[in-house]
């Protein structure tokens, strides 16, 4: 088989998964077609199984690429276009991005337990078990708007009720009456995707949102497909390197 024929076949196979063909992929098809073929096979697994609709797959890939722990502009553009082509509305895409934007709060949910450990080491008394009336009201508001309560929120609520109230408002926007374009299961799958992604790996949140997704009807096959989609980001190591190789080659 000629190299040009092999490259054409690789292009056809990869674009059939919904992934756009780029100059970087074209370069990779020449540099190492075996690797690109293996990646195409990996990329094809969720595309062919379709435990999740293609629109949902693209929204999840968009959330992963847009997450603050990844921030891949090319991926955001590609998966925005692919989600629109799969039938997503602009409102659904914006809501996906809003859901992904809450990832910043993990600075608090990771930081607060560490703070509590240090305070305990220094002999400070623990926070009171009983909530104040204001704190109880905030807890009830969060539970009503977000549909769950996680124990990781307890010390945050006690230490900074003002922050917790503002975060409740911020994180609840996709759940209010004017939004809510995505169903509850899809929202939880978005949270699952960004928490399991290799650039984040936030296990406490992952368990919460997998549990919530199951509660809203997600199957084990659907959740497994979320993990499979999130795993695809590893190829970007090679794609970034191919661009660097091409740039360096121009100067020789």
Automatic annotation (TrEMBL):
InterPro entries: AhpD-like, CMD-like. Residues 1-16 have a biased composition (Polar residues). Residues 1-25 are annotated as: Disordered. SUPFAM superfamilies: AhpD-like. This is Carboxymuconolactone decarboxylase-like domain-containing protein. Residues 33-102, 161-233 form the Carboxymuconolactone decarboxylase-like domain. GO terms for molecular function: peroxiredoxin activity. It comes from the Eukaryota. It comes from Saxophila tyrrhenica. Transmembrane segments: none annotated.
């Amino acid at each position: 088989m000629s190299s040009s024929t092999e490259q054409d076949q690789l292009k056809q196979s990869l674009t059939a998964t919904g992934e756009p063909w780029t100059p970087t992929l074209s370069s990779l098809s020449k540099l190492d077609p075996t690797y690109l073929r293996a990646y195409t096979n990996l990329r094809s697994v969720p595309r062919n199984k379709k435990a999740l609709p293609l629109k949902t797959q693209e929204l999840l890939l968009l959330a992963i690429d847009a997450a603050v722990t990844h921030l891949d502009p090319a991926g955001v553009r590609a998966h925005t276009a692919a989600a629109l082509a799969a039938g997503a509305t602009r409102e659904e895409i914006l809501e996906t991005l809003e859901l992904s934007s809450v990832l910043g709060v993990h600075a608090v949910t990771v930081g607060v337990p560490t703070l509590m450990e240090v305070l305990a080491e220094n002999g400070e008394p623990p926070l009171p078990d009983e909530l104040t009336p204001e704190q109880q009201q905030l807890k009830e508001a969060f539970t009503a708007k977000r549909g769950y309560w996680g124990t990781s929120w307890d010390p945050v609520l006690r230490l900074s009720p003002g922050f917790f109230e503002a975060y409740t408002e911020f994180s609840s926007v996709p759940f209010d009456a004017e939004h809510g374009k995505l169903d509850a299961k899809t929202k939880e799958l978005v949270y699952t995707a960004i928490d399991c992604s290799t650039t984040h790996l936030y296990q406490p949140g992952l368990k919460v949102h997998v549990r919530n997704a199951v509660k809203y009807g997600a199957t084990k096959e659907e959740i497994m497909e979320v993990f499979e989609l999130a795993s695809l980001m590893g190829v970007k190591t090679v794609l970034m390197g191919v661009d660097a190789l091409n740039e360096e080659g121009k100067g020789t």
